[in-house]
Fold this sequence. Notes:
Distance between the termini: 35 Å
Bound molecules: adenosine-5'-triphosphate
Keywords: ATP-binding, Nucleotide-binding, Transport
Structural class: alpha/beta
GO molecular function: ATP binding; ATP hydrolysis activity
Pfam family, one: ABC_tran
CATH class of the largest domain: Alpha Beta
Domain ABC transporter: 5-227
Strand content: 25-35%
Protein name: ABC-2 type transport system ATP-binding protein
Amino acid sequence: MNTLIHAQALSKRYGEKLAVDHIDLAIEQGSCFGLLGPNGAGKSTTLEMLEGITPPDSGTILFNGQPLSRSYQHAIGIQFQSTALPDYLSVRDCLKLFASFYPKPVPLEPLLEQCQLTEVADQLHFHLSGGQRQRLLLAMSLVNDPQLLFLDEPTTGLDPNARQAFWALLQKVKAQGKTILMTTHYMEEAEQLCDRIAIMDRGQIIAEQSPMTLIEDHFFPHLVSLPSDRRLPDPPAAEIRVHRQGPQLLLECRDTDGVLKWLSGAGVSLQGLNIRQPNLEDLFLKLTGSTLQS
Length: 294
Ligand SMILES: Nc1ncnc2c1ncn2[C@@H]1O[C@H](COP(=O)(O)OP(=O)(O)OP(=O)(O)O)[C@@H](O)[C@H]1O
């Protein structure tokens, strides 16, 4: 695999605040890379530097092995969270306007079709639903057939159905071989779409891997949860780790049968007990002490 974009020792300071603190990132061509982190972690600032919008204070960014040049803006697509467009433009007009900025835009009718906008192509853009609006912003970012697509919290504010539909659309964009760099607060979004994620906290990357590997590296395979008012004796084996997460006691383990026998043998009530696999939300809490969605 080729590294499409490579950032080294990237930093950005706003006054006293070191928003991004010497981070390194290498994003493989054709992959979907997710930046996750609590509010204020530095995700958007990182994205803006990689987009060429915000100049870093220090560090280097290489695209296809070369420093960013004027042609970079033609090779990337940015899905903005909102765009100030004149009210009188229809969906098709918005795409035509964006297409006019590029020397070789893609044909618009297939793009409308791909982003499921054909039926609303003649509607004024400000009449769109939240999901349709996100699909229009995505279509606008795809108008120049970019190699690299930037998405900053693409499904924030969408209802669960619209979010699922948007994920399906992004899977198709990914299948076309495009490289995607996204920020998200949704664990499920990262798990479904991202080949690799970096968790940012206070301007630094504190973990980076595929979602599955990150979870395997930090947890035993099963989580037994109990209401936190239960009193537990000391665990019998090193392969049980007990910690408190909000209103729950979490018991990480390899052998759920062994844990259940230990708990019932010690007279601990099993009422409200739940067994599940650890997920990115658990990882996030373990590493940053915050939840993904705040
Ligand atoms: N233009 C700016 N001027 C001053 N401070 C800024 C500016 N942009 C970001 N910051 C600060 O830099 C830090 C990182 O902000 P950034 O928006 O990159 O974080 P984030 O991880 O994207 O957060 P969120 O998830 O809330 O969008 C924050 O403390 C923020 O207040």
